[in-house]
UniProtKB/TrEMBL annotation, chains A, B:
<dbReference type="Pfam" id="PF00583">
    <property type="entry name" value="Acetyltransf_1"/>
</dbReference>
<dbReference type="InterPro" id="IPR051016">
    <property type="entry name" value="Diverse_Substrate_AcTransf"/>
</dbReference>
<keyword id="KW-0808">Transferase</keyword>
<protein>
    <submittedName>
        <fullName>Probable acetyltransferase NATA1-like isoform X2</fullName>
    </submittedName>
</protein>
<keyword id="KW-0012">Acyltransferase</keyword>
<feature type="domain" description="N-acetyltransferase">
    <location>
        <begin position="139"/>
        <end position="205"/>
    </location>
</feature>
<dbReference type="InterPro" id="IPR000182">
    <property type="entry name" value="GNAT_dom"/>
</dbReference>
<dbReference type="GO" id="GO:0008080">
    <property type="term" value="F:N-acetyltransferase activity"/>
</dbReference>
<dbReference type="InterPro" id="IPR016181">
    <property type="entry name" value="Acyl_CoA_acyltransferase"/>
</dbReference>
């Protein structure tokens, strides 16, 4: 009973910022983070702490993150702490190269335009019209692209496994991880020595 | 009612290998491991897997451990995976220096002589009459010295915390960790992607 849509005029042009028949086109890139990304990494880490109701444990500042993630004379990527970032843009990313990690590019189609993201401005990166990981991660499961990049890099380097942590009440995440083939290790418990307890223990005479 | 022991003869000499009035004297040293220690590290890791009933997950060989822990062009200690070893000897250790970690020396008195350890020979290191960590760890809680060395190094380097894992049924270990000020994080779950699942996930087209 539905009338067929009329064919578009022969000279029609659909700009990238308009919805295409498949949705809103969006370009993604995964690359190694640099010290210039520390303000974004700090915001993303804090957002995760808010989501996990763990802000009372959140102590990192941009300065401490920079010192930990990008120290002077840092070892090469993937030999120590290494940060990958997922960026989004309504325009294609320029070509870029890195001797340690070839940036990964893909175009996606989202149901909702990235312009609707209320935190777009807060996460605009120095690479142009760009937004990062968590701000849109919940919408389309973009986090899975990052996890895939980590798994691919580990396999490429001959590593035997990839470990990460999840909170036991985050059933959506656990279901997703199990669906991709990960095992949840129910018996392993994290132990943590921090703050005054660390200082006190480090200064006892054993 | 008990008779007092007679005083020792004035010229008595107690060699190091005999029990002293305080027990059996033993010298300990904590130092950075080197690639020469890989056979011992492999045995210690396997012993832990046996204790934890996890030998079905044990895949490491001395060759894979050497490649992972001591790769060519490895970054400096404490910027990536770093192994500290606790050694025991009935004789004092010679002085040694390392620009990244000053070896730590202490003499202890054990209730039982180290010569009684049935695995003494298996863990004899290249540093002489020496035995390592786990073989005697259960006897006198020597593991706590290693944990202390890690905590002291972390505090010295300005790090904010030390994390490790324990199995939830290992009540003795958990009680000990809590006694030293550590928190057990009950909500955090380990996720692991390994073996065929890692290979499969790394090769999908996300």
């Amino acid at each position: 009973m539905a009338a067929a849509a009329p064919p578009p005029p022969a000279d029609s042009h659909i700009p990238l910022s308009e919805p295409t028949p498949c949705g809103h086109e969006l370009f993604t890139r995964i690359r190694l983070a640099t010290v210039e990304d520390v303000p974004h990494i700090h915001k993303l880490t804090h957002q995760l702490a808010v989501f996990e109701s763990l802000t009372h444990l959140f102590q990192a500042t941009p300065a401490t993150l920079a010192a930990t993630l990008f120290p002077p004379n840092a070892p090469p990527p993937f030999t120590s702490v290494t940060v990958l970032l997922l960026e989004l843009s309504t325009l294609p990313f320029p070509p870029s190269e890195n001797p340690h990690f070839t940036p990964w590019h893909k175009s996606l189609h989202l149901d909702l335009p990235i312009d609707d993201d209320p935190e777009k401005e807060a996460f605009r990166s120095n690479a142009g019209d760009v937004n990062e990981d968590v701000t849109v991660g919940g919408r389309k499961g973009l986090g899975k692209l990052l996890l895939w990049a980590v798994a691919e890099q580990a396999a490429k380097m001959g590593y035997g496994r990839v470990d990460w942590v999840v909170l036991d009440w985050n059933v959506n995440a656990i279901t997703f991880y199990e669906g991709m083939g990960a095992k949840i290790l129910p018996e392993l418990r994290f132990c943590r020595l921090t703050g005054e307890a660390l200082e006190a223990y480090a200064h006892v005479n054993p």
